[in-house]
Amino acid sequence: MTHVEGPNGQNEPMSRRPDGENGNGNGDVARGAGYAAFLGAALIGVAVVIGIVLLQIGDRNDNGPSAAANPTTPTTSTTKPPKTTTTKPNTGTTAASAQRAPGAVSIVVLNGGAPAGKAGDMADALKLKGYTNQGNATDWNDHKQTGNSIYCRAGLEREGSALAIAVGSNTKSNIPFPANGPPNPDNRDCIVVVGAPG
């Protein structure tokens, strides 16, 4: 091999590659691989940051999956009740009247088989219970019965039931007036018949 001398007579030193390596190119590859790794790591970091930001924004959105899971919101509906109309009864019709108070029911007490004086005793007891509108207690001649009973005119069933309670237990009530019924002086509303003890 012939050496070429330089202008000063010395051997020209071997020229080096501009990359400063020994000519086999390993330096460029190493630098390129390191740079690529750095870029990859940077891109991954940026992607992670963007993902976190997007997740935070998505959590604040009310229209997300949680809202879609329950798409219907409860609604309340109000319905107006149907209108009711009240009509007054004609003057020809009579409405059901209220039950009369004891003092408004005229009664008479008759003895129908009880010992003498029992009709008067019953009349006095009923006066103490408010039945003050009474005729004179008397006897129902030729009538004998066991126990007490109440005869009332039609339409006075409630008053008859209340009077039976006032007379006492086991009193028959709401017996209609028979055609040849007990004497009813002064056309009383109800008649109390005191019978023999049962």
Overview of the molecule:
This protein has a five-stranded mixed β-sheet with strand order 2-1-5-3-4, with helices on one face. It contains four helices and five strands, in the order ααβαββαββ. The protein has helices at 26-60, 65-69, 118-128, 157-167, and strands spanning 107-111, 138-139, 149-152, 172-175, 190-194. Helices cover 31% and strands 10% of the residues. The protein has 198 residues and is an alpha/beta fold. The N and C termini lie far apart (164 Å).
Topology summary:
Layout (H helix, E strand, L loop, with lengths): L25 H35 L4 H5 L37 E5 L6 H11 L9 E2 L9 E4 L4 H11 L4 E4 L14 E5 L4
Q: What are its keywords?
A:
198 residues; alpha/beta; five-stranded mixed sheet; 5 strands; rod-shaped
**What integer value in Å does the Rg equal?**
60 Å
What is the general shape?
Answer: rod-shaped
Helix content: 25-40%
Task: Determine the number of helices (DSSP H or I, runs of at least 4 residues).
Answer: 4
- The residue-averaged pLDDT reads 78
Summarize the biggest pleated sheet: 5 strands, mixed
Classify the beta-strand content into a percent band. 5-15%
Q: Determine the N-to-C terminus distance.
A: 164 Å
The chain-level structural class is alpha/beta
Number of strands: 5
Main sheet strand line-up: 2-1-5-3-4
State the low-pLDDT regions, or none: none
The ordered string of helix (H) and strand (E) elements is HHEHEEHEE
